[in-house]
Design brief:
By secondary structure, the protein is an alpha+beta fold. Among the domains are: 3-93, lambda repressor-like DNA-binding domains (434 Repressor (Amino-terminal Domain), Orthogonal Bundle); 180-259. It is 38% helix and 16% strand. It contains 9 helices and 10 strands. Strand 8 and strand 9 (238-239) form a beta hairpin. It is flat. The protein starts with a helix and ends in a 13-residue tail after the last helix. Mean pLDDT is 79; it is low at 96-107.
Length: 273
């Protein structure tokens, strides 16, 4: 146990990791057995028992691991998770230091004329982007006239190839029913649960290529993960829009086929206010 863990033990009656180890050993359960039943990586179980906070993943993931560990050895999951959060919050508070801001050097402040030039460039870029989005570039006078009149436009189910000028059918919308399958494209932790009750359906750290099929009897399945970009979700074998932006914790995302078929903002696009 590290020196910092020893300091924690002086403040807490018993560290969560020690409680979990004692409960596990009293029942003759090995860490390998816990890893198999909970799908928690063995190295993370060692880190939890040894109170190696700096080696654990983000608090959200770590707390979920502790809760699953506690349930596997017969302890109160929510209570143990709450005690663990108290320990890591104490550690985070004890290690935090105040930020130091260097006073601004007046000689380094850019001149006002530079600010006006930057603003002008920004306005030109916005205007150019708006014109590009309008599709006015690459059109002759007749094309622009038809566009202004609102005629000769492709229908909602068709699109025009700018390179060939040929009209092609737009992709069909995702199906609103069928089997929902989740495939990991990289190492990613996720939890599947009932949205209304919060009851856990599945929780694991998937490796690239591993899949999980949402049970057909799930009433309102939802997902929580911190790497939506590492998941590929399909309905009846057809991919749907990403369930959230990359490197962002998402939760309460419905996995019902009808909800997944609805369009979502592209990854990296902030939600509308």
């Amino acid at each position: 146990m590290s020196e910092e863990s020893g300091e924690d033990a002086a403040l807490f009656e018993s560290l969560v990791g020690s409680k979990l180890r004692d409960a596990r050993e009293s029942q003759g359960i090995s860490l390998e057995d816990i890893a198999k039943s909970t799908r928690i990586p063995l190295r993370q179980l060692h880190n939890i028992e040894n109170s190696d906070y700096e080696k654990l993943p983000a608090p959200t993931y770590s707390t979920g691991f502790v809760k699953a560990f506690a349930l596997a050895v017969g302890l109160d999951g929510p209570e143990t998770a709450a005690a663990f959060r108290e320990e890591i919050n104490y550690r985070s508070t004890g290690q935090s230091t105040g930020d130091y801001f260097e006073p601004t050097d007046p000689a380094r402040v850019p001149p006002r004329s530079l600010a006006w030039i930057a603003a002008g460039i920004a306005i030109l870029l916005i205007i150019g982007y708006a014109l590009w989005r309008s599709g006015m570039f690459g059109l002759d006078a007749d094309d622009r006239a038809r566009m202004a009149a609102g005629t000769d436009a492709p229908t909602a189910s068709e699109s025009t190839d700018a390179g060939t000028g040929q009209t092609t059918a737009a992709p069909a919308p995702p199906p609103t029913q069928g089997t929902v399958m989740i495939e990991a494209t990289d190492t990613v932790w996720l939890r599947i649960y009932e949205l209304d009750s919060g009851d856990r359906i599945y929780e694991a750290e998937l490796q690239a290529g591993e899949t999980y099929e949402i049970p057909s009897d799930a009433v309102q399945p939802a997902i929580r993960t911190g790497r939506a970009d590492a998941l590929r979700v399909t309905v009846a074998g057809r991919a749907v829009d990403p369930i959230g932006p990359p490197q962002t914790v998402v939760s309460d995302v419905s996995l019902l086929p009808a909800d997944l078929a609805r369009p979502r903002p592209a990854a990296g696009t902030p939600p509308a206010n």
